[in-house]
Amino acid sequence: MEKLKRNPSAILSNVKLADGPDKLKGGAYEFKGRPDSYIKIPNAGRMDTRKSMTILVWALPKNRMGPIVQFAKKGFAVRLWMMRRNMVFAEFVSRGTRKKKPYLASVNGVSPWKWNYFGLSYDRPSGIATLFVNSKSVLRKRIGSFDLSTNHDVFLGARPGDKQFFRGRLSCLQVFDKALRSHQVANMEKSCFRSTG
After folding, report:
1. What SS3 string covers the chain?
2. Per-residue pLDDT reduced to its tens digit, 163-177
3. pTM (2 d.p.)
4. Is the predicted pLDDT of residue 116 greater than 60, yes or no?
């Protein structure tokens, strides 16, 4: 199994290193829940999955609502958000028209102020989208076949000019150009963890 490609260099804005899900120092970034606290990943095509995708990320949420992963600085695009203290929300948007598709939202297993391993996937041939929480598929929905709006820069934590901000920590963002199955998601869960010995 190959990752899409190495991520382009990120632009950090008012974030700091913190302990990660592996309990080691410097394994995560802390976001302050402010409009200027975000990470921008320029997308020159390396994160444009277009047909199918999986996004995996560790998140420790400390507020009620805000973006974890958001394609596009403005408007609608693929995104993974906290919608309540214990609800994660995934939305898929078509390329070009930027039309929103039926979203996936779940409170199943989501814990505020604790590390959660979130994932979303979309398989264009089947039209099925899946939301993962702690390696478990908590929601699957057929949303139709279309090209994804992943041809935009990626923002973590906030988008400049937006009024919703994520407060908490994020670690180990991974993007794949295929829809991973549950066992593959589980296999990637600790892939970024560092050895203490």
Report:
1. CCCCCCCCCCEEECEEEECCCCCCCCCEEEEECCCCCEEEECCCCCCCCCCCEEEEEEEEECCCCEEEEEECCCCCCCEEEEEECCEEEEECEECCCCCECCCEEECCCCCCCCCEEEEEEEECCCCEEEEEECCEEEEEEECCCCCECCCCCEEECCCCCCCCCCEEEEEEEEEECCCCCHHHHHHHCCCCCCCCC
2. 899 999 999 999 999
3. 0.93
4. yes
Could you tell me which residues come within 8 angstroms of residue 112 by beta carbon, excluding any fewer than 6 positions away? 61, 62, 85, 86
Lowest mean pLDDT among 25-29, 55-59, 96-100: 96-100
Rounded Cα distance, 36 and 25, in Å: 23
pLDDT for res 4 = 44
